[in-house]
Amino acid sequence: MKFDPTLALHSLPAMLHGLLITIALTACVLALGLLISIPLAVARASQRRAVAWPVAAYVAFFRGTPAMILLYFVYYGFGQVFGARDGLLVGFTLNHSSYVIEILRGGLLAVPAGLHEAAAALGIEPRDVFLRIRLPLAIRYGLKAYQNEVILFTKATAVVSVITVVDLTAVANDIFYDTYDPFTPLLTAAAFYWVLVNLMRIGIARLERRLNAHLTADERRARAAAPPPSLARRLLPIGRMRPAE
Questions:
Q1: If exposure means fewest CB atoms within 10 Å of the residue's CB, which of 36, 177, 197, 244 is most exposed?
Q2: What is the pTM of this model?
Q3: C-beta of residue 62 within 8 angstroms of C-beta of residue 40
Q4: Which CATH number does the domain 7-240 belong to among 3.40.630.30, 3.90.1150.10, 1.10.3720.10, 3.40.50.300?
Q5: By the 8 A CB rule, do 178 and 187 touch?
Q6: Segments making up each domain of the chain, as ranges
């Protein structure tokens, strides 16, 4: 097997079209997943069992079910009954949101209780406390875990090729079937996925740095206030001297 640059160049238009389908699918599911996950994460973090347990069951079921099985169920089962054969977003959204709910729940629980008490002492409305304090902090705390979930989900969208969606993987498979060259189209598709995933990773990392800019500024001020290493070494023996008896 060897890479064929001519075939790769010739297949670029089809590959780019498949990449756009992958990006559109990923963006839609991420948006729907966040829209569903925020209220469900609040319910999941609730101390009321009647509110938290149904969401816990939702998370347990859809986290434990492979995305491909959900897609088959929506496309071949549920879709034939209710006419939702084009609702592949449903299967992906249910699976993706179950992970995001737990990420947001962990972030909400990580918010210090003292912030709630301080906000209540200042007379801030509970809704404003949630929207302006708890939710932004929960997003900041869970951003790393969310980045991992986004990257894993983006690569998992390749399974839509099994239900005739012409995404990037489906285009690579079609080129393979036409040319009997599995190496060139699949390696080209892998390169596109690599670029897409790393662009997303860089974007989320920049967002994280922007959200934590105040922490970076505090670290810079602390380093600026610390004595130089040479002075610290000269002061260290003095600090270890025993008092005169």
A1: 244
A2: 0.79
A3: no
A4: 1.10.3720.10
A5: no
A6: 7-240
